Amino acid sequence: MTVTLPSRRTLATSAERRLNLDNINPHVKAAKYAVRGELAVKAEEYRVRLSEGDKSLPFDSVIFANIGNPQQLDQKPISFFRQVLSLLENTALLEHPEALRTTFGYQQDVIDRAKVLLADVQSVGAYSHSQGAPVIRNSVAKFIEERDGFSANPQDLYLTGGASSGVSTLLNIICDGPSAGVLVPIPQYPLYTATLSLLNAQCVPYNLEEEKAWGTDVNAIRENLSRAKAAGTDVRAIVVINPGNPTGASLSAEDIKGVLDLAAEEKLVVIADEVYQTNVFTGEFISFKKRLRQLQQEVSGKYDNVELVSLHSVSKGMVGECGHRGGYFELVGFDPEVAAQVYKYVSIMLCPPVIGQCLVELMVNPPKEGAPSHELYQKEYNGIRDGLRKRAFALYEAFQRMEGVECQEPQGAMYLFPTITLPAKAIEAAKAENRAADEFYCLRLLDATGVCVVPGSGFGQKENTLHFRTTFLAPGTDWVERIVKFHSEFMAKYN
Amino acid sequence: MTVTLPSRRTLATSAERRLNLDNINPHVKAAKYAVRGELAVKAEEYRVRLSEGDKSLPFDSVIFANIGNPQQLDQKPISFFRQVLSLLENTALLEHPEALRTTFGYQQDVIDRAKVLLADVQSVGAYSHSQGAPVIRNSVAKFIEERDGFSANPQDLYLTGGASSGVSTLLNIICDGPSAGVLVPIPQYPLYTATLSLLNAQCVPYNLEEEKAWGTDVNAIRENLSRAKAAGTDVRAIVVINPGNPTGASLSAEDIKGVLDLAAEEKLVVIADEVYQTNVFTGEFISFKKRLRQLQQEVSGKYDNVELVSLHSVSKGMVGECGHRGGYFELVGFDPEVAAQVYKYVSIMLCPPVIGQCLVELMVNPPKEGAPSHELYQKEYNGIRDGLRKRAFALYEAFQRMEGVECQEPQGAMYLFPTITLPAKAIEAAKAENRAADEFYCLRLLDATGVCVVPGSGFGQKENTLHFRTTFLAPGTDWVERIVKFHSEFMAKYN
């Protein structure tokens, strides 16, 4: 029998408790993370109300366009990946290969791959090496070599629980106290500012150039760097998100060189967040590692000591397996003694999820041409890629129809980040609610349509500009039309 | 074609690099984590050498008795768990229920459970709510209610990537700077001291009483607390590991009351690490939550404001699925504003691995009596439990045969933590190598036998005592005999 205690016990005041908002870690309190903030919480409340049959809302579904969560929306997992994972989870299935093939359509390469991975990890229920299982790191190294044309060493690779935990590890190593600073693009994925807040380190922002398709302007970075140094900040690293989040922008070889020049001259560690490397619509993805190695070949000396870390993940791309929390980072040019500290740091949390590690292996080593699973894999992969592109452009075209909305042509990642120009009356109404104008707009959008997006202020934006970030993952066009209709009514109301 | 660059590029000196051992985060540098330290690295090197056919070593296998990693050794996963997980990974399997039943022996409750979980998480590849999927938290709350006889609220539950990440979250919230202190048992699982180092907070140690079967002595805790307070430390919390790691000790109702009295009187948050709650050989496991609720019923007022957090995990017990990184913690009596900060903190890392969350659900809600999978589940569960007990006592008996080794009778967890008394000459030999004597002993043991254990200094021990921690997970008795033989030769050499 379960006893529920009298409620007086929940009536303790903050002052009576040991922990309250005024005495916990102030750096946790200071951290901001809008992607899962007030709007997301409200959207979830609406979802629950709808699922409980509430008919009082002016929409019949909630669209979570606030977060790059492909499989929450339309995206189906890639069969080859999930077939292998099912065998890793239940190795007893391997005892009946004939039934796997005939009834369930598992190809021989699915079965073979599961056996290779099991030979290395023993069981996905066992801890692995803290840097990740050796065979999986070998595959990642091979993938990087093939992508870039330059060698990669498995010992420099660290598998992670999604790229987020990798970023956290790296910033924990790099930041040595309140004077340490890291250059972060604006707009940015708020993981960076939140983690720097937690570490009580300085975010040194640099603006991306919206009018130049959200590219980098190295001169502007230099200016901000000088200003930060003059103010006593010990700037140690620069974050580049390529392709960009929330902007979707893909950097050119020249832009990347600009950042590497700066890194070499100013001795900055480069943190290259490359999780959207396969989500590229225009141009091609060039990794920072490849560009660095090219420059090291071309120019003697200058780039030799550049320290670079590149992050990747199973969460994005055509994989979209964010719930599995898999990823890796590669250290390039790091001091071995520092790398040993990175190892110690990650070993405290023992190891990243082993099934997520296996998924990293499958992502970097998919069925090759001629392999039994190749055709289905390629079909599914292309289907996801084409669907993303189609939805991105449909959304972009809708934005073009909207008064006061300007948007760069989709380039990559999973997001659009349009500028919105709001009427003065709307800005006043926001002030009256003590809110940023873009936040006010996004809240009204959610209340009216069930579509959840994130205000630009959650990522940072140039002063006196307003934006919002939306994914283009949700299926169909109904939700896009909801936005169009809301926007025109909103503008009419406040104009 | 892959280009390997000339090696001069790896010859940059520490001083030329941006990051070196002298300028990275000093708190990372200060952190110690022996479970995966020098000995573990050396053991892994031996394992690789053996696997490559090296015949020069005096042993033919490495026994990783340094870490509670059951499935790396003999322990098989529980079939019901893995069957459900295989369906979650590949939902296409659900399209052929007949083949699942007849060829693969999946019972109907396996299929049903997979469908219930999928209805909640949608896909194990999608991010979940940052606190964990709602249906899974409901199951955990029900489990706690049935275990304790007191109500539990799913909103107070936070699913985690193993208990380790939960501990990290909590200490990040609690510690507000260098004067913050947390009482930690000695010996302890080094996650606590390592995380406090990272946070630059104070570890306030309190000794467990080896002669009282590693129980707590509240008077001794009080003394240490007073001393720490007098030295200016703001002691905020007390960690209790029950059943103990590395000691295996199970606390009595009276011991638990003693800690709760102290917490109530001194306003300390209680962090109850209860991951070994099903690994109990003698007596019964009593949760801190249950004892707290009992005291709140029995005594008016005194315990009303106690803040307690209890942690659990899929890594230990008869589950042993540490590679899946699943766990949870429950906040009891916390200020809702503080709980909101915990939510924000965990949301920065998005969500714990979803397949690990599903495994938490299966652990807390296994097939009940009468359910089709119950019999097999119970048989496997009991088999693991009995095997652990048998191996624990076999190891204990071996220790009793060894000169200068004293060991408490096995009580629980997965470890024994014997005291060793070493000859003066051995202690001198250790000093000559600039090593602690227990570390010296464990290194010689590894070099001679391939058995990897962790020196007591990795967990902390009373001054002038020496210990080591060994798991009792490895199958067979050969490795135990290797230890016995080594020990007698070691003692002969240094006596």
Give the DSSP E fraction of chain A (strand runs of 2 or more residues). 5-15%
CATH superfamily caption of the largest domain in chain A: Type I PLP-dependent aspartate aminotransferase-like (Major domain)
Category by helix and strand content of chain A: alpha/beta
* Uncertain segments of chain A: 6-10
Question: Strand order within the widest sheet of chain A?
Answer: 2-8-7-6-5-3-4
Number of helices of chain A: 17
| Main interface: chain pair and counts | A-B, 115 and 115 residues
The tally of domains of chain A stands at 2
In the CATH hierarchy, the third-tier topology of the largest domain in chain A is known as: Aspartate Aminotransferase, domain 2
The mean pLDDT of chain A is 94
Number of strands of chain A: 14
Q: Mind describing the biggest β-sheet of chain A?
A: 7 strands, mixed
The CATH level-2 architecture of the largest domain in chain A is identified as 3-Layer(aba) Sandwich
| CATH class label of the largest domain in chain A | Alpha Beta
Span of the ends, CA to CA of chain A? 61 Å
Overview of this protein structure:
2 copies of one chain form a homodimer. By secondary structure, chain A is of the alpha/beta class. The first copy, chain A, has 2 domains: 26-62 and 381-494, Aspartate Aminotransferase, domain 1 (Alpha-Beta Complex), CATH 3.90.1150.10; 127-364, Aspartate Aminotransferase, domain 2 (3-Layer(aba) Sandwich), CATH 3.40.640.10. Chain A has helices at residues 26-30, 38-51, 79-89, 97-102, 108-121, 134-148, 162-174, 191-198, 218-230, 253-266, 288-298, 336-347, 354-364, 374-400, 424-432, 437-449, 478-494; strands at 63-64, 157-160, 180-186, 202-207, 234-241, 269-273, 308-313, 327-332, 405-406, 415-416, 419-420, 451-452, 454-455, 468-471. In chain A, the strands form 4 sheets. A 7-stranded mixed sheet of chain A has the order 2-8-7-6-5-3-4, with helices on both faces. In chain A, strands 10-14-13 form a 3-stranded antiparallel sheet. In chain A, helix 11 links the parallel strand 6 and strand 7 (308-313). The longest helix of chain A has 27 residues, at 374-400. Chains A, B: Its cofactor is pyridoxal 5'-phosphate. Chains A, B: It comes from Aspergillus heteromorphus CBS 117.55. Chains A, B: Residues 110-477 form the Aminotransferase class I/classII large domain. Chains A, B: Keywords: Aminotransferase, Pyridoxal phosphate, Transferase.
